[in-house]
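job 3f2a | input accepted
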Amino acid sequence: MQSFSSLCKPLSPEFLHANDMPVRIGLVVLATDMVVEVEWRELFTGLPIEILVARIACAAEVTPEALLTMAQQIGHSASLILPDVNLDAIAYGCTSGSLVIGEEKVQQLLQQGNPQQITSNPFSAIKAALAFIAAQNVVVLSPYLASVNKPFYNALTDAGYHVLAWGSLDLTLDKDIGSMNPDHLPALIEQLLDGVDTTPDAVFISCTNFKAMAKLAELEQRYGCYFMSSNQVMAWHLLHQLGIKLPNTKAGRLFGVE
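job 3f2a | predicted structure (258 res):
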């Protein structure tokens, strides 16, 4: 039998050139989230974009108090995503959490060790998307309780948006939000828009755990306005900052806006 040293042949690796590296996007995902990672991987299929995920501990119930506790963990969770490799961008995937904790605080936590890091969260992203299309009148569909919805409503109106209607499903458990049937979404939108006399500039479907992205184009064609979801706007916001456009996407008109 030959010895290992006689069998072992030293070889030379070849590394990718910097220009050939994929775009690496970090994503801090709630431990209870079933949807954002799946929707993002579908959105970026076939593109030189890698999604690198860290899960963050969170309570099962979506309440302002539970959401606030995540502020203590966001920075640590973000630091676990390729700690020795520079990411092109990073996001915190919780709409209500980014509102309760504060978007500036979330950005600061994501940028620990790199104050120039491109970041996003759904609350910052929806405001950026609405501003980009010059929206004024909006409609919101949310799965949350009033205690979570009311601060979000106040934040949108304080930002200058006119909310024409607000639909609430009053769910408290993330597992229930993530288990909703996306085929029922058009019926929810029909009920929500019933009686709204003015066509909104945009309808926003809140929560990264709300399956909605596959229905956005269909709803836009039916109602003639923009439809946006938390996962869609957060992906758009990062790509917009990176200067990347998605070719031939069916994830809504927002990606096609020049």
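job 3f2a | Residues 129 and 233 are 7 Å apart (CA to CA).
job 3f2a | closed
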